[in-house]
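Protein 1 of 2
SEQ + STRUCT:
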Amino acid sequence: MKYAIIAAGEGSRLASEGITRPKPMVPLCGTPLIERMIKIFAANNAESISIVINSKQPETLALLRILQKEYPINIIVKDTPSSMHSLHAMSQYLRGGKFCLTTVDTVFDEQDFARYIEQFQASRSHGMMAVTEYIDDEKPLYIQVDDTMHITDFLDMPPKQPRYISGGIYGLSDKALDVLEECIAAQQSRMRNFQRSLIANGLDITACPFGKIIDIDHAEDIKKAELFVTNR
């Protein structure tokens, strides 16, 4: 399985709250977020791990150069306007089968993740998105599914009976990358618009529930995530 990590954001909200290190280098239980993610991927049979960071992260780049000696890491340094463009920057390394993409600040249960990877590898769908009923996000992306857990829509506003939101873990395939190329050519932006395009283009995208997924956007989220990881 190929893996990819989006770590090109500026982490402006954390910086405004006194966190001076770039988000990928923020320690979670003593380990930088980026290193923690790499080790989780390696434990789940990583063929390669592609990572995009921005040009203002020399500390992150230095760590990745060290980790590159032990893990099959592709490093892309590029300033991108959105997560969708970050994915596009890594796409040359992701062709030729299924891959799993996450953002660097996504914290999840490792057993949930291993189960998810196993299900995605066995699935015939074009993509599989991690979803959670745990909603603790300023602007969550709501996921609408049918009775068989196939995704029918991605919504900015909650439906009448909201159940799932996106967990920031994306299992995708070559066909999804074809749709990505179309989105880039059409000058679209934002990951959620790319996801809507997957459905609009008729791709079969399913949802895989996780118990809890935490995004580290604020300083208080670090404590929440550490407590979650410690308890698991």
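Protein 2 of 2
SEQ + STRUCT:
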Amino acid sequence: MNASRHSKSDVLQAAMKLLDEVGLPDLTMRKLAATLDVQPSALYWHFANKQSLLAEVSNTIVNFPKPVSEGKTWQDTALQTALALRGALLAFRDGAEVVSSTLALGLGAESALAKIESSVAISNRQLAQAAAQSILFLVLGQVWHEQQRMQANSLGIVDNLEETGTPNLEVGIRLILQGLTEKVKA
């Protein structure tokens, strides 16, 4: 089987499906190649290495539609954007871990930060960037925690999984936005 049998998109979609099935620790180029019925070397036709594949997976995860802002305050738009990111991360097993590691290595997923920053409609770009980064890290941390708890629950390691998601996250984001609003007014 040759590498041209599958497009880059085919490889990416198979990787995302495999991520959902086995999780990040078990997503290997060898397993991905077996899924596509090709030799592992064929994958390198489309992706130089596993990190570049994961960067593209991250970019796909954070490619969520930005919420409509018409008729809303910028604070509400920023909150809805952050919650849309949460939903996008939760849509994929280990989504927060994949995106977080990609961002940490500077390999991709920057559109998540850009979407949040563009929703923080204040003239001080430095403050907007700081707020957007704080919100991004809050969302990534919260979702990572949720996904770890879900995984532990599915394995029977923990029981009575408490709700730690949206209510606490909304409070945290609103606190950041309230502080930013007060700083801008000062």
